[in-house]
C-alpha cells in the first residue's frame, strides 16, 4: 500500500514537472535572464560569431540561438517562444503581434549549376522555366545535352520564397525537384549531380559549381548592389520587448562583421521600422 | 535499509517520469490529431496525396505509401545479407573469430544514422545515378541505405536465435544423413522461427522510424510511388515541415495526425512482437 502511495506521489511530481512544459527560470541560477533568437539559418553563423561580445557586456543574460527557418522564427516570436526572430520574409499578415524590424542588409541569392551544363547565363524567363520543370534538358537553352535536375528547399525557406516570388511568380516548382533542408546540402547536391541547378544564399564559398548570370547581370560580391535577386534578412522584435532585447537587436544590426557572412549593407546604420 | 528505500524511490521516480512523458506525448499528439480529424475527416487525407500545407491540402497517402515501400524494399534487400551473416556467425565461426564477428556487428549497430545517410549520399545515390540515368535521389536509394542500416541489428538478433537451437536437433538431423544445408533449411531455421520473427519486427520498427538517413537521400517530394524519383515518408515529411508549422500554428495538427499514424504502426509492431514472444514460449 505504502509502495503504491510512493509511486503515485512520484508520478505526481514527475507529471507536474513535465506538464510545466518549461524549465523554471531559476534553473540557470539566480538572476540569469534568457533571450532566444530563432529563425533563418542564413543568419545563424553571423549572430553566433558576434554574440559573445554582447554577452560579455551584459553579464547575467544568456542568449540561445536556434534555426528552424524564417517561418518558424516568426511563429515563435508571435507565440512568445522567442524574443527575436531572424527572417528573410516579411511577417505574415495574419501575425497579430506588433513587431519592429531591424534590417540586417541584403543577402544575394544565386542560381548555382553543375559546372558542365554548357550554359553561363539564363534570362529570367528561362530561369523560371528551368525551375518549374518546363525546360528538361540544358540543350533547350543552348547548353550541353544533359537532363536538368532541379534542387529546391522546403516551403519554410526564405530563399525559396524569394525565388518563388521573383522568378516563378504564379508557377510552381517542378514536382521532380529534389528537396534539401539546408544551403549546404543544396550546394553539395548541385556539385555532385550532373545537370543539377539550385538556388543558394551566397553566404558560403561556392566552389565547384557554376554561378549563373541572370539576364544581363553577373554576380560578384563586390557589385552586390547590382545583383537583382536577394533576400533582406531582418531581425524582428516585439514592439513591447524589454530594453535588453531591443538593445541586442540594435547591436546585431550594427556589426560590420555581417558582410563576412554574406549579408551586404551600406555603411550607414539602418533604422528600425515599426509595423 | 535507508539506501534500499532511496534506490526504490529513485526507480519508482524514473518509472513515473517515463510514464508521465509518454502520456504527455500521447496526449499532445492525440489532441492535435483529433482536431485535425474533426476539421478534415479521417479518410480524405488518407486517400489524397496532395500535400501543400500552406494551401491547406493535407493528403498524406504519398507518405504512408512511401514509408511502407521504403521499409519493404529495405527488408527485401537486407534479407540475404542477414541470413548470410547470421548463419556465418552462429553456425560456421567458432571461438575468437566468432566473438570478433559479433563485436564488429555490434559496432555497426551503434553507428549513428546520419553516418549511414552520408554513406547513402556518397555511394548509393551516385550508384543509382550511374545505373539508371536519374538524379539518384528517391525511395530506391533510401531503401538501400535502410537495408544497410538494419542488416547489423537484424543479423545480431538472428545470430543469437540461431545459436540457441539445441545441438541435439542439429546432431539428430546430421545423424539421420541430412546435409548441412538441409539441416539449416529444414531444422535450424524452422526451430528459430519465433526469434527470427522478433528480429524481423525490430528491423521493421527501425526502418519505419528512421528519419535523417532517409531524408538525406529520398528527395523530399509528395509522390505516391516512383522508386527512382524524389519521394518522402511520414518521418521525413515530419522533419521537413516542423519548421514550417511549429507547435500551436495552423497546420501543425496535420503533423500530429502523421505522428499518430507512426505511433499506431509502431504499436501494431510491438503487439505483433508480444504475440511472437508468446508463440515462442507456447
Q: What does this protein look like?
A:
The complex is a heterodimer of chains A (275) and B (282). Chain A is an alpha/beta fold. Helix content of chain A is 32%, strand content 21%. Chain A has 7 helices and 13 strands. The longest helix of chain A is centred in the first third of the chain and has 19 residues, at 2-20. Chain A is globular and about 70 Å long. The radius of gyration of chain B is 22 Å and the shape is globular. By secondary structure, chain B is mainly alpha-helical. In chain B, a hairpin with a 4-residue loop joins β1 and β2. Chain B has a two-stranded antiparallel sheet. In chain B, α3 packs parallel to α6 (139-163), α3 crosses α9 (193-209) and α9 (193-209) packs antiparallel against α12 (252-281). Chain B is built from 12 helices and 2 strands; from the N terminus they run ααββαααααααααα.
Notable traits:
heterodimer; A: 275 residues; alpha/beta; seven-stranded mixed beta sheet; six-stranded mixed beta sheet; 7 helices; globular; B: 282 residues; mainly alpha; 12 helices; 2 strands; 78% helix
Amino acid at each position: 500500500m505504502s509502495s503504491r502511495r510512493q509511486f503515485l506521489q512520484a508520478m505526481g511530481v514527475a507529471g507536474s514537472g513535465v506538464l510545466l512544459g518549461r524549465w523554471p527560470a531559476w534553473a540557470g541560477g539566480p538572476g540569469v535572464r534568457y533571450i532566444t533568437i530563432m529563425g533563418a539559418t542564413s543568419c545563424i553563423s553571423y549572430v553566433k560569431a558576434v554574440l559573445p561580445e554582447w554577452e560579455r557586456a551584459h553579464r547575467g543574460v544568456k542568449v540561445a540561438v536556434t534555426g528552424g527557418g524564417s517561418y518558424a522564427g516568426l511563429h515563435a516570436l508571435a507565440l512568445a517562444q522567442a524574443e527575436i526572430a531572424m527572417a528573410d520574409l516579411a511577417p505574415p499578415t495574419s501575425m497579430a503581434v506588433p513587431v519592429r524590424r531591424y534590417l540586417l542588409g541584403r543577402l544575394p541569392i544565386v542560381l548555382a549549376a553543375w559546372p558542365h551544363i554548357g550554359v553561363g547565363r539564363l534570362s529570367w524567363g528561362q530561369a523560371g522555366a528551368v525551375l518549374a520543370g518546363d525546360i528538361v534538358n540544358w540543350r533547350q537553352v543552348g547548353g550541353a545535352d544533359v537532363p536538368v535536375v532541379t534542387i529546391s528547399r522546403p516551403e519554410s525557406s526564405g530563399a525559396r520564397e524569394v525565388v518563388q516570388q521573383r522568378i516563378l511568380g504564379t508557377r510552381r516548382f517542378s514536382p521532380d525537384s529534389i528537396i534539401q533542408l539546408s544551403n549546404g546540402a543544396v550546394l553539395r547536391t548541385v556539385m555532385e549531380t550532373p545537370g543539377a541547378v539550385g538556388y543558394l544564399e551566397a553566404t558560403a564559398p561556392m566552389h565547384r559549381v557554376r554561378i549563373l548570370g541572370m539576364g544581363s547581370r553577373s554576380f560578384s560580391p563586390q557589385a552586390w548592389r547590382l545583383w537583382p535577386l536577394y533576400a533582406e534578412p531582418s531581425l524582428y522584435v516585439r514592439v513591447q520587448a524589454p530594453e535588453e532585447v531591443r538593445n541586442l537587436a540594435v547591436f546585431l544590426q550594427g556589426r560590420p562583421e555581417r558582410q563576412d557572412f554574406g549579408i551586404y549593407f551600406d555603411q550607414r546604420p539602418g533604422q528600425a521600422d515599426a509595423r | 535499509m535507508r539506501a534500499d528505500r532511496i534506490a526504490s524511490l529513485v526507480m519508482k521516480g524514473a518509472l513515473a517520469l517515463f510514464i508521465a512523458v509518454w502520456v504527455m506525448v500521447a496526449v499532445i499528439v492525440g489532441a492535435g490529431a483529433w482536431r485535425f480529424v474533426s476539421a478534415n475527416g479521417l479518410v480524405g487525407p488518407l486517400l489524397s496525396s496532395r500535400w501543400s500545407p500552406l494551401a491547406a491540402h493535407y493528403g498524406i497517402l504519398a507518405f504512408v505509401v512511401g514509408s511502407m515501400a521504403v521499409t519493404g524494399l529495405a527488408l527485401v534487400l537486407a534479407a540475404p545479407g542477414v541470413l548470410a551473416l547470421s548463419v556465418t556467425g552462429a553456425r560456421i565461426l567458432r571461438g575468437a573469430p566468432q566473438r570478433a564477428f559479433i563485436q564488429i556487428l555490434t559496432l555497426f549497430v551503434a553507428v549513428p544514422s546520419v553516418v549511414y545517410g552520408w554513406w547513402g549520399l556518397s555511394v548509393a545515390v551516385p550508384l543509382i545515378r550511374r545505373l539508371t540515368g536519374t538524379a539518384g535521389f528517391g525511395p530506391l536509394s533510401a531503401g538501400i541505405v535502410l537495408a544497410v542500416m538494419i542488416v547489423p541489428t537484424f543479423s545480431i538478433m538472428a545470430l543469437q536465435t540461431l545459436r540457441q537451437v539445441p545441438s541435439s536437433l542439429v546432431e539428430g538431423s546430421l545423424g539421420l544423413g541430412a546435409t548441412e544445408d538441409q539441416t539449416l533449411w529444414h531444422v535450424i531455421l524452422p526451430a528459430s522461427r519465433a526469434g527470427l520473427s522478433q528480429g524481423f519486427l525490430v528491423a521493421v520498427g527501425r526502418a519505419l522510424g528512421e528519419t535523417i538517413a532517409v531524408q538525406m537521400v529520398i528527395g523530399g517530394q509528395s509522390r505516391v510511388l516512383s522508386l527512382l524519383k524524389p519521394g518522402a515518408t511520414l518521418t521525413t515529411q515530419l522533419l521537413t515541415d516542423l519548421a514550417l508549422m511549429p507547435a500551436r500554428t495552423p497546420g501543425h495538427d496535420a503533423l500530429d495526425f502523421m505522428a499518430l499514424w507512426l505511433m499506431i504502426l509502431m504499436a501494431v509492431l510491438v503487439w505483433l512482437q508480444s504475440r511472437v514472444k508468446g508463440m515462442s514460449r507456447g
